[in-house]
Design a protein that fits this description.
Elements (H helix, E strand, L loop, with lengths): L6 H17 L10 E7 L2 E6 L12 E4 L17 H7 L4 E5 L12 H20 L3 E6 L1 H13 L4 E7 L15 H6 L6 H7 L1 E2 L1 H11 L1 H13 L4 H15 L4 E2 H13 L7 E4 L2 E4 L7 E6 L7 H5 L11 E6 L5 H4 L7 H11 L3
Parallel strand pairs: 3-4, 3-5, 5-6, 6-11, 11-12
Antiparallel strand pairs: 1-2, 2-4, 7-8, 9-10
Protein backbone atom coordinates (compact mmCIF):
# COMPACT_ATOMS: atom_id res chain seq x y z
CA UNK A 1 0.00 0.00 0.00
CA UNK A 2 1.35 3.40 -1.00
CA UNK A 3 1.34 5.93 1.82
CA UNK A 4 0.14 9.50 1.52
CA UNK A 5 2.74 11.95 0.21
CA UNK A 6 4.44 14.17 2.77
CA UNK A 7 4.36 17.94 2.62
CA UNK A 8 8.01 17.89 1.51
CA UNK A 9 7.23 15.48 -1.32
CA UNK A 10 4.32 17.61 -2.52
CA UNK A 11 6.51 20.73 -2.41
CA UNK A 12 9.32 19.00 -4.36
CA UNK A 13 6.84 17.75 -6.97
CA UNK A 14 5.39 21.24 -7.41
CA UNK A 15 8.89 22.70 -7.79
CA UNK A 16 9.74 20.08 -10.41
CA UNK A 17 6.57 20.76 -12.40
CA UNK A 18 7.38 24.48 -12.37
CA UNK A 19 11.00 23.81 -13.37
CA UNK A 20 9.85 21.63 -16.27
CA UNK A 21 7.45 24.33 -17.48
CA UNK A 22 10.07 27.08 -17.24
CA UNK A 23 13.24 25.32 -18.38
CA UNK A 24 12.01 22.32 -20.38
CA UNK A 25 13.71 19.52 -18.49
CA UNK A 26 16.11 18.24 -15.86
CA UNK A 27 18.78 16.14 -17.61
CA UNK A 28 22.22 17.60 -18.24
CA UNK A 29 23.06 16.43 -21.77
CA UNK A 30 26.42 18.16 -22.08
CA UNK A 31 28.72 15.59 -23.71
CA UNK A 32 31.97 14.89 -21.97
CA UNK A 33 34.90 16.45 -23.87
CA UNK A 34 36.69 14.13 -26.28
CA UNK A 35 39.12 14.16 -29.17
CA UNK A 36 39.04 12.10 -32.39
CA UNK A 37 42.09 9.80 -32.58
CA UNK A 38 41.24 7.47 -35.50
CA UNK A 39 38.80 7.18 -38.39
CA UNK A 40 37.84 4.98 -41.33
CA UNK A 41 34.73 3.76 -43.09
CA UNK A 42 31.91 3.63 -40.50
CA UNK A 43 34.55 4.13 -37.80
CA UNK A 44 35.57 7.03 -35.64
CA UNK A 45 37.46 6.51 -32.40
CA UNK A 46 37.28 9.21 -29.73
CA UNK A 47 39.37 9.56 -26.58
CA UNK A 48 37.69 11.25 -23.61
CA UNK A 49 39.57 13.89 -21.65
CA UNK A 50 40.36 13.05 -18.05
CA UNK A 51 39.02 15.58 -15.53
CA UNK A 52 41.44 18.29 -14.52
CA UNK A 53 43.74 17.09 -11.77
CA UNK A 54 42.99 13.39 -12.32
CA UNK A 55 45.99 11.25 -13.21
CA UNK A 56 45.70 8.39 -15.71
CA UNK A 57 45.77 4.97 -14.09
CA UNK A 58 45.24 1.43 -15.32
CA UNK A 59 44.89 0.11 -18.84
CA UNK A 60 42.70 1.97 -21.34
CA UNK A 61 39.09 1.01 -22.00
CA UNK A 62 37.42 0.92 -25.43
CA UNK A 63 33.62 1.17 -25.33
CA UNK A 64 31.79 -0.65 -28.13
CA UNK A 65 28.15 0.28 -28.82
CA UNK A 66 25.79 -1.82 -30.94
CA UNK A 67 24.82 -0.77 -34.42
CA UNK A 68 21.76 1.47 -34.84
CA UNK A 69 22.20 3.41 -31.59
CA UNK A 70 24.08 6.62 -30.79
CA UNK A 71 27.40 6.05 -29.05
CA UNK A 72 26.27 8.28 -26.19
CA UNK A 73 24.59 5.21 -24.73
CA UNK A 74 27.85 5.25 -22.71
CA UNK A 75 27.50 8.97 -21.92
CA UNK A 76 23.75 9.21 -21.45
CA UNK A 77 23.69 12.25 -19.19
CA UNK A 78 25.82 13.90 -16.53
CA UNK A 79 25.47 11.99 -13.28
CA UNK A 80 24.50 8.77 -15.05
CA UNK A 81 27.30 8.20 -17.55
CA UNK A 82 29.58 5.17 -17.86
CA UNK A 83 32.25 7.42 -19.34
CA UNK A 84 31.99 9.94 -16.53
CA UNK A 85 32.37 7.12 -14.01
CA UNK A 86 35.45 5.66 -15.70
CA UNK A 87 37.37 8.88 -16.28
CA UNK A 88 36.63 10.14 -12.77
CA UNK A 89 38.84 7.25 -11.59
CA UNK A 90 41.56 8.12 -14.09
CA UNK A 91 40.75 5.27 -16.44
CA UNK A 92 41.78 6.27 -20.02
CA UNK A 93 38.57 5.78 -21.98
CA UNK A 94 37.74 5.70 -25.69
CA UNK A 95 34.64 4.91 -27.71
CA UNK A 96 34.11 3.76 -31.28
CA UNK A 97 31.35 5.46 -33.28
CA UNK A 98 29.91 4.11 -36.55
CA UNK A 99 28.17 7.19 -37.92
CA UNK A 100 24.98 7.19 -39.97
CA UNK A 101 24.02 4.24 -42.15
CA UNK A 102 22.80 5.06 -45.66
CA UNK A 103 21.67 3.20 -48.76
CA UNK A 104 25.27 3.01 -49.94
CA UNK A 105 26.09 0.89 -46.86
CA UNK A 106 23.45 -1.73 -47.61
CA UNK A 107 26.08 -4.29 -48.64
CA UNK A 108 28.00 -4.14 -45.35
CA UNK A 109 27.76 -7.30 -43.29
CA UNK A 110 28.75 -8.00 -39.71
CA UNK A 111 32.16 -9.12 -40.92
CA UNK A 112 32.91 -5.47 -41.76
CA UNK A 113 32.68 -4.55 -38.07
CA UNK A 114 34.12 -7.81 -36.72
CA UNK A 115 37.14 -8.02 -39.05
CA UNK A 116 37.82 -4.36 -39.87
CA UNK A 117 36.15 -1.75 -37.67
CA UNK A 118 36.71 -3.18 -34.19
CA UNK A 119 40.23 -4.56 -34.75
CA UNK A 120 41.26 -1.18 -36.19
CA UNK A 121 39.70 0.62 -33.23
CA UNK A 122 41.46 -1.63 -30.70
CA UNK A 123 44.79 -1.18 -32.47
CA UNK A 124 44.32 2.60 -32.57
CA UNK A 125 43.81 2.73 -28.80
CA UNK A 126 46.72 0.34 -28.23
CA UNK A 127 49.08 2.35 -30.43
CA UNK A 128 48.04 5.61 -28.81
CA UNK A 129 48.56 4.38 -25.25
CA UNK A 130 51.16 1.65 -25.75
CA UNK A 131 49.08 -0.65 -23.54
CA UNK A 132 46.67 -3.57 -23.95
CA UNK A 133 43.02 -2.54 -24.08
CA UNK A 134 40.00 -3.49 -21.97
CA UNK A 135 37.03 -3.84 -24.33
CA UNK A 136 33.50 -3.21 -23.03
CA UNK A 137 30.60 -4.00 -25.38
CA UNK A 138 26.87 -3.58 -24.85
CA UNK A 139 24.13 -5.57 -26.64
CA UNK A 140 25.19 -6.29 -30.24
CA UNK A 141 28.39 -4.39 -29.43
CA UNK A 142 29.21 -7.13 -26.95
CA UNK A 143 28.55 -9.85 -29.53
CA UNK A 144 30.74 -8.10 -32.09
CA UNK A 145 33.48 -7.64 -29.48
CA UNK A 146 33.51 -11.36 -28.70
CA UNK A 147 33.61 -12.28 -32.39
CA UNK A 148 36.39 -9.75 -33.03
CA UNK A 149 38.42 -11.12 -30.11
CA UNK A 150 37.96 -14.65 -31.46
CA UNK A 151 39.35 -13.49 -34.81
CA UNK A 152 42.16 -11.29 -33.44
CA UNK A 153 43.64 -13.63 -30.85
CA UNK A 154 44.76 -12.67 -27.36
CA UNK A 155 46.61 -9.41 -28.02
CA UNK A 156 46.19 -6.44 -27.67
CA UNK A 157 42.84 -7.02 -25.90
CA UNK A 158 43.44 -7.26 -22.15
CA UNK A 159 39.91 -8.29 -21.18
CA UNK A 160 36.33 -8.41 -22.43
CA UNK A 161 33.25 -7.15 -20.61
CA UNK A 162 30.03 -8.18 -22.33
CA UNK A 163 26.84 -6.49 -21.11
CA UNK A 164 23.28 -7.52 -22.08
CA UNK A 165 24.42 -9.52 -25.12
CA UNK A 166 22.18 -12.51 -25.98
CA UNK A 167 23.96 -15.64 -27.23
CA UNK A 168 20.97 -17.99 -27.14
CA UNK A 169 18.07 -16.55 -29.09
CA UNK A 170 15.76 -19.44 -28.20
CA UNK A 171 15.89 -18.11 -24.63
CA UNK A 172 14.33 -14.76 -25.61
CA UNK A 173 10.54 -14.84 -25.01
CA UNK A 174 10.03 -11.78 -27.23
CA UNK A 175 11.20 -13.79 -30.25
CA UNK A 176 8.86 -16.76 -29.72
CA UNK A 177 5.67 -15.15 -31.15
CA UNK A 178 7.57 -14.22 -34.33
CA UNK A 179 8.76 -17.75 -35.13
CA UNK A 180 5.50 -18.93 -36.79
CA UNK A 181 5.59 -15.90 -39.12
CA UNK A 182 9.28 -16.47 -39.84
CA UNK A 183 8.78 -20.12 -40.72
CA UNK A 184 5.55 -19.49 -42.68
CA UNK A 185 7.46 -17.12 -44.98
CA UNK A 186 10.46 -19.43 -45.31
CA UNK A 187 12.46 -17.06 -43.14
CA UNK A 188 11.95 -14.06 -45.42
CA UNK A 189 9.34 -12.02 -43.54
CA UNK A 190 11.63 -8.97 -43.25
CA UNK A 191 13.39 -9.35 -46.59
CA UNK A 192 11.13 -6.97 -48.59
CA UNK A 193 11.73 -4.21 -46.03
CA UNK A 194 15.53 -4.21 -46.03
CA UNK A 195 15.73 -4.86 -49.77
CA UNK A 196 13.50 -1.87 -50.50
CA UNK A 197 15.27 0.55 -48.15
CA UNK A 198 18.74 -1.00 -48.11
CA UNK A 199 18.35 -1.16 -44.33
CA UNK A 200 15.89 -1.46 -41.51
CA UNK A 201 14.92 2.24 -41.26
CA UNK A 202 15.53 4.13 -38.03
CA UNK A 203 11.79 4.55 -37.20
CA UNK A 204 11.33 0.77 -37.27
CA UNK A 205 14.41 0.23 -35.11
CA UNK A 206 13.07 2.80 -32.65
CA UNK A 207 9.60 1.24 -32.57
CA UNK A 208 11.03 -2.24 -31.99
CA UNK A 209 13.03 -0.97 -29.01
CA UNK A 210 9.94 0.69 -27.56
CA UNK A 211 7.79 -2.41 -28.05
CA UNK A 212 10.35 -4.53 -26.21
CA UNK A 213 9.47 -2.53 -23.10
CA UNK A 214 5.76 -2.13 -23.84
CA UNK A 215 4.76 -2.68 -20.22
CA UNK A 216 7.03 0.18 -19.16
CA UNK A 217 5.67 2.40 -21.95
CA UNK A 218 2.09 1.75 -20.81
CA UNK A 219 2.95 2.46 -17.18
CA UNK A 220 5.17 5.44 -17.96
CA UNK A 221 2.62 8.23 -17.23
CA UNK A 222 1.75 6.61 -13.90
CA UNK A 223 5.41 6.12 -13.01
CA UNK A 224 6.17 9.76 -13.79
CA UNK A 225 3.22 10.92 -11.67
CA UNK A 226 4.42 8.80 -8.76
CA UNK A 227 7.97 10.17 -9.05
CA UNK A 228 7.29 13.85 -9.67
CA UNK A 229 9.29 14.70 -6.57
CA UNK A 230 12.38 12.78 -7.76
CA UNK A 231 14.33 15.05 -10.09
CA UNK A 232 16.95 12.38 -10.83
CA UNK A 233 14.21 9.95 -11.94
CA UNK A 234 12.70 12.57 -14.24
CA UNK A 235 16.12 13.35 -15.71
CA UNK A 236 16.64 9.65 -16.48
CA UNK A 237 13.28 9.44 -18.26
CA UNK A 238 14.29 12.38 -20.44
CA UNK A 239 17.65 10.77 -21.20
CA UNK A 240 16.11 7.44 -22.24
CA UNK A 241 13.56 9.21 -24.46
CA UNK A 242 16.33 11.20 -26.15
CA UNK A 243 18.37 8.05 -26.68
CA UNK A 244 15.43 6.18 -28.23
CA UNK A 245 14.56 9.10 -30.51
CA UNK A 246 18.06 9.12 -32.01
CA UNK A 247 18.43 5.52 -33.14
CA UNK A 248 19.70 5.01 -36.70
CA UNK A 249 19.24 2.38 -39.40
CA UNK A 250 20.71 -1.12 -39.70
CA UNK A 251 22.46 -1.93 -43.04
CA UNK A 252 20.50 -4.44 -45.10
CA UNK A 253 23.09 -7.22 -45.29
CA UNK A 254 23.76 -7.04 -41.58
CA UNK A 255 20.03 -7.31 -40.93
CA UNK A 256 19.90 -10.42 -43.09
CA UNK A 257 22.76 -12.02 -41.14
CA UNK A 258 21.25 -11.22 -37.74
CA UNK A 259 17.85 -12.40 -38.92
CA UNK A 260 18.95 -15.70 -40.45
CA UNK A 261 22.05 -16.60 -38.41
CA UNK A 262 21.04 -15.29 -34.97
CA UNK A 263 17.25 -15.61 -34.89
CA UNK A 264 16.59 -18.55 -37.20
CA UNK A 265 19.67 -20.75 -36.94
CA UNK A 266 20.77 -19.68 -33.43
CA UNK A 267 24.39 -20.01 -34.57
CA UNK A 268 25.83 -18.09 -31.64
CA UNK A 269 24.52 -20.67 -29.18
CA UNK A 270 26.33 -23.33 -31.19
CA UNK A 271 29.62 -21.52 -30.72
CA UNK A 272 30.44 -20.56 -34.28
CA UNK A 273 29.14 -18.46 -37.13
CA UNK A 274 30.11 -17.91 -40.76
CA UNK A 275 30.48 -14.25 -41.71
CA UNK A 276 31.51 -13.25 -45.21
CA UNK A 277 32.70 -16.79 -45.91
CA UNK A 278 34.90 -16.89 -42.78
CA UNK A 279 34.08 -19.21 -39.89
CA UNK A 280 34.39 -17.51 -36.51
CA UNK A 281 34.74 -19.85 -33.52
CA UNK A 282 33.73 -18.21 -30.26
CA UNK A 283 35.71 -20.79 -28.29
CA UNK A 284 38.96 -19.24 -29.54
CA UNK A 285 38.55 -16.26 -27.21
CA UNK A 286 41.49 -16.25 -24.81
CA UNK A 287 40.84 -13.08 -22.83
CA UNK A 288 39.40 -12.94 -19.30
CA UNK A 289 35.71 -12.28 -19.89
CA UNK A 290 33.09 -10.70 -17.64
CA UNK A 291 29.48 -11.37 -18.69
CA UNK A 292 26.73 -9.20 -17.15
CA UNK A 293 22.98 -9.69 -17.58
CA UNK A 294 20.20 -7.33 -16.53
CA UNK A 295 17.71 -8.95 -14.19
CA UNK A 296 14.85 -7.03 -15.81
CA UNK A 297 16.04 -7.32 -19.43
CA UNK A 298 13.37 -8.51 -21.90
CA UNK A 299 15.59 -8.15 -24.98
CA UNK A 300 18.50 -10.14 -23.54
CA UNK A 301 17.17 -12.21 -20.63
CA UNK A 302 19.57 -13.71 -18.11
CA UNK A 303 19.47 -17.20 -19.64
CA UNK A 304 20.26 -15.94 -23.14
CA UNK A 305 23.22 -13.89 -21.86
CA UNK A 306 24.59 -16.62 -19.58
CA UNK A 307 24.96 -18.93 -22.60
CA UNK A 308 28.22 -17.17 -23.52
CA UNK A 309 29.88 -18.55 -20.39
CA UNK A 310 29.47 -22.08 -21.82
CA UNK A 311 31.24 -21.17 -25.06
CA UNK A 312 34.63 -19.98 -23.77
CA UNK A 313 36.73 -23.03 -22.85
CA UNK A 314 40.04 -21.27 -23.59
CA UNK A 315 39.33 -17.96 -21.84
CA UNK A 316 41.73 -17.12 -19.00
CA UNK A 317 38.73 -16.41 -16.77
CA UNK A 318 34.97 -16.39 -17.25
CA UNK A 319 32.85 -14.55 -14.72
CA UNK A 320 29.06 -14.20 -14.84
CA UNK A 321 27.06 -11.62 -12.90
CA UNK A 322 23.56 -10.19 -12.89
CA UNK A 323 22.73 -6.59 -12.08
CA UNK A 324 19.54 -4.56 -11.73
CA UNK A 325 18.02 -2.99 -14.82
CA UNK A 326 16.48 -3.65 -18.19
CA UNK A 327 18.32 -3.66 -21.50
CA UNK A 328 19.56 -0.07 -21.33
CA UNK A 329 19.20 0.29 -17.58
CA UNK A 330 21.73 -2.42 -16.77
CA UNK A 331 24.31 -0.40 -18.69
CA UNK A 332 23.48 3.13 -17.67
CA UNK A 333 20.41 3.19 -15.46
CA UNK A 334 20.38 4.69 -12.00
CA UNK A 335 20.89 1.23 -10.49
CA UNK A 336 23.98 0.67 -12.67
CA UNK A 337 25.92 3.06 -10.43
CA UNK A 338 25.85 0.48 -7.62
CA UNK A 339 25.35 -2.64 -9.73
CA UNK A 340 27.08 -2.89 -13.09
CA UNK A 341 29.78 -0.23 -12.82
CA UNK A 342 31.45 -1.60 -9.66
CA UNK A 343 31.56 -5.04 -11.33
CA UNK A 344 33.43 -3.51 -14.29
CA UNK A 345 35.77 -1.61 -11.96
CA UNK A 346 36.70 -4.70 -9.99
CA UNK A 347 37.17 -6.89 -13.07
CA UNK A 348 39.33 -4.40 -14.93
CA UNK A 349 41.44 -3.60 -11.88
CA UNK A 350 42.22 -7.30 -11.41
CA UNK A 351 43.32 -7.56 -15.04
CA UNK A 352 45.23 -4.30 -15.36
CA UNK A 353 48.43 -6.28 -15.21
Amino acid sequence: MVGLPTLGTVRAAAENVAHKALFGGFADFRPLPRTAVDSGRTRSVFEYHLPEGVEATGLPTLLVPPLAVPDYCFDLRRGCSVVEHLIAQGRPTCVVEYGGIGFGDRGLGLEHWVEEVLPAAVRAVHERTGKPVHVVGWCLGGIMSVLAAARMGAFPIASLTVIASPFDFTAIPLVAPLRPLIEATGGYALTPVYQAFGSIPAPLVRKAFQLSGLDKQVMKPISIARNLADRDYLAQIEAVDRFTDNMVAYPGRTVAQIYHRFFRANDLANGEIVLGGTRVEIGRVKQPTLVIAGRGDAIAPVKSVRKLTELLPEAAEVRFETAPGGHLGVLTGRGARRGTWPLIDDFQARHDG
